[in-house]
Amino acid sequence: MAKEIKLLGTWASPFSHRIELALKLKGLQFHYLEEDLSNKSQLLLQSNPVHRKIPVLIHNGNPISESLVIMEYIDETWQHQNPLLPKDPYARAVARFWAKFIDEKVLWTAFKAYNDKGKEQEDAIEEFSQQLKFLEGELKGKEYFGGERFGFVDIAAFFILQFLTVLQEVKEAELMTEEKYPVLFEWMEKLQGNEVVAGCLPPREKHVAYVRARRAAAEEAASKTKAA
Amino acid sequence: MANELILLDTWVSPFGMRVRIALREKGIKFEYKEEDLTNKSDLLLKMNPIHKKIPVLIHNGKPVRESGIIVQYVDEVWHDKAPLLPSEPYPRAQARFWADFVDKKIYDTGRKIWTTKGDEQKSATEEFIGYLKTLEAELGAKPYFGGEKLGYVDVTMIPFYSWFHAYEVSGNFSIESNCPKLMAWAKRCMQHESVSKTLPDPKKVYEFILQLKKRLGIE
C-alpha cells in the first residue's frame, strides 16, 4: 500500500510540508523520498521534466507536480476524510484565491522585504505589511481560514508564514510581529499546537541554520556578480 | 433564482477572454462591462480591492477573481453544460498543471518581447518559442489539449493567439514557422464561435501595444 504513494520532497521546503500534511490528514500511508536539489534524482527529472522541482506526488506511477495542484488532487481522490476544500463552488473560488495570493504575491514580496536593499526593500516592506493585513482581515472572526476546521488555505498559508518567521529570525528583522498581527499569530500558534501539523515541521534550529547558510551563500554569490 | 452575471473586463485582456470563452461555450448570458484601467471604476475597486484587476465575475452580487479561478467556478456551477475540466482527478490535475504552466510562462515572457530590445528581446523570444514548443509536445496528436473537445487548457491558452501577431512584429520572428502544430491547434479553436466571437483582431492588439508603449514611455 505504501508503495502506491510516493512524495518527492525536501525537509526544508514549505511546499513539501504542505503535501506531507495533506497526506497525513487523509490518513494515507506514503513513501517519502528526500531529494538533494543539487543532485536531482532520475525519478524527479522524469516525473517533473517541465519544472524539475519538488514536491512531486507519484500515485500508482502517475506523477503530479505543483503543490496546490497536488493538494486538489489529493482532496479529489480521497474525498471522504478531512475534506480540504469546501463543497460550495463560491467558497472554493474564495479558497483558491487566497492560496494563489499567498503563492504569487505574499511569498515573493516577503523575500524582497527581507532580502532587498534601499527603495525596493522599503516598497516591499510596505506591500508585505498590506498583504498581511489582508490576510488578517480574511481570518478575523474565524477559527481558521477554512472556518471551523482548518483546510486548503490554512495548509497553504501556514507553512509559508512559518518559513517566513524563520527567514525573519535569520535576517534579524521584525516585519511580522504578534503586536502588529495578533490574529495571524494566534492562528499560527493554534496550528503549531496541532500534533499532525507540527509533525510536518523540521526542528526550528535546524531550519534556521539551513536558511542562514543559504542566505549567506546567496549574498556571497550576489556580491561576486557585482564585483565581476 | 435569477442568475445575474456581470463581467468586469477589457477587450484586449487574454485573461478576460478566458472567462468570456468559458461563458459562451456554456451558453451563459452575462453583462459585459468594459473597464478603463487608467481610471478604474468604483465597482472594480470594491469587488477586487486586493489586486484591483480584471477580470472579475460578479455572480448575484458576489465577486469571483483571478481568471483561472473564475473559469473553474463557472465550470463547477454550470457543470452540465460543455464541461471544461475532465471528470477524473488525474486528468484534472494534469489540466491544472498545464494551465498553471501557461499562467507562469506565456504572459510574462510575451511581455518581455514587446517591452525590450536587442539581446534581452532576443532572449525573451527564444524563451517564448521554447515554451510554445513545450506546449506543442503536450498537445501531441490530440486535436485539443482537452482531448476531443475544447477544455480548460485550451481556454487558458487560446486568448494569447490574438496577441501572437503583436509578439511576432515586435520580436521579428514567426510563430507559424517555429510552431506549426500550435498554430493548427489555434485555428481549430477559432472555428468555435465562443472563441472567434471573443478574440479581438490581432492587428488591433498590435495597435494597442504600440499605444501602451507610448504611454509607458517605452521606445
Radius of gyration of chain A: 18 Å
Q: Which strand-content bin applies to the residues of chain B?
A: 5-15%
Reported for the largest beta sheet of chain B, the result is: 4 strands, mixed
How far do the termini of chain B sit from each other? 52 Å
How many DSSP helices of chain A?
9
> Roughly what fraction of the amino acids of chain A lie in strands?
5-15%
Radius of gyration of chain B: 17 Å
Spans where pLDDT lies below 50 across 5 or more residues of chain B: none
Summing up helix and strand content along with how strands pair, one would put the structural category of chain B as alpha+beta
General form of chain B: globular
- Overall helicity of chain B: 55-70%
Helix/strand-derived class of chain A? alpha+beta
What is the overall pLDDT average of chain A?
Answer: 96
Q: How would you describe this protein?
A:
The complex is a heterodimer of chains A (about 230) and B (about 220). With about 230 residues, chain A is an alpha+beta fold. Chain A contains 9 helices and 4 strands. In chain A, strand 1 (about 5-10), helix 1 (about 15-25) and strand 2 form a beta-alpha-beta unit. In chain A, helix 1 (about 15-25) runs parallel beside helix 3 (about 65-75), helix 4 (about 90-115) packs antiparallel against helix 5 and helix 5 packs across helix 7 (about 180-190). With about 220 residues, chain B is an alpha+beta fold. Chain B is built from 11 helices and 4 strands; from the N terminus they run βαβαββααααααααα. The radius of gyration of chain B is 17 Å and the shape is globular. The termini of chain B are far apart. Classes of the chains: A alpha+beta (about 230), B alpha+beta (about 220). The interface between A and B is medium-sized, with 21 and 22 residues.
